[in-house]
Amino acid sequence: MIEHNKVVVITGASSGIGEATAKLLTKRGDKVVLGARREERLQKLADEIKAEGGEVIYASTDVTKRSDVEALAKLAVDTFGRIDVWLNNAGLMPHSTFDKLHVDEWERMVDVNIKGVLYGIAAGLPVMREQKSGHFINVSSVAGHKTHPGGGVYSGTKYAVRAISEALRQEEAQAGSNIRVTILSPGAVATELPNTITDTDLKGGIDSLYSAVAIPAERIAETVAFVMDTPEDTAMNEIIIRPTIQLP
Length: 248
Ligand code: NDP
Known about the structure:
Bound molecules: NADPH dihydro-nicotinamide-adenine-dinucleotide phosphate
Number of domains: 1
Shape: globular
Distance between the termini: 38 Å
Order of helices and strands: EHEHEHEHEHEEHEHE
């Protein structure tokens, strides 16, 4: 019988995959600590979860600020006493070809998609080491396995998430810390993610792909719940999950 009472920190919890995961986990008894920048969205989500009897707390969090991410970890420990799972989920995907020189967007992706994950590890790892248990679930992408024109920087950040996660996994295995690491690589999921694309030459094509094939965010939430439920001596290290009809 699996007990569902884990303390789960979720970055990027104000929409999409993060929001769906918070709803699913609290329905089954896990406690969630929500971080994202749009506080009003977090508040609304927290109200909905509480109305359903779930346990939730949130803090306005910009994952590009290490102090915000540290504060989120402290909120989790002060409120619920521990951190069992850290879902590094915050991300953005402003695709564009290199010739457009959207350098600000390149930097933003590096800051959120890579450094945000690193700050999550820096905040969660000491707590998990102390507990001698924990689980990082780091959201990469199918784009972390293959790239395409217009997706170079996004893919680069998602390849990085996989490299970082695998090294962390090996280090924690070596240390015998009982900390698990999962890389979760979704394909097209119906969320607000394509709204981050400003390149009008690419946006239409990606919107068409998403409206043709995307699966609901709840599918990814179910996968998070599934990997969390693996017995402690077993770690689901890498999962690709995409729509059945998605080609690339
Ligand atoms: P959404 O755009 O719906 O959600 C992205 C979340 O990231 C939002 O909650 C947003 O909150 C948060 N976020 C963005 N910037 C920051 C920041 N600086 N600090 C804190 N939070 C931030 O998209 P998804 O749910 O789809 O994205 C979740 C993850 O899934 C991302 O890492 C994405 O790359 C990955 N993914 C998604 C796929 C898809 O097809 N949807 C496919 C493969 C991977 P706020 O703006 O309030 O800060």
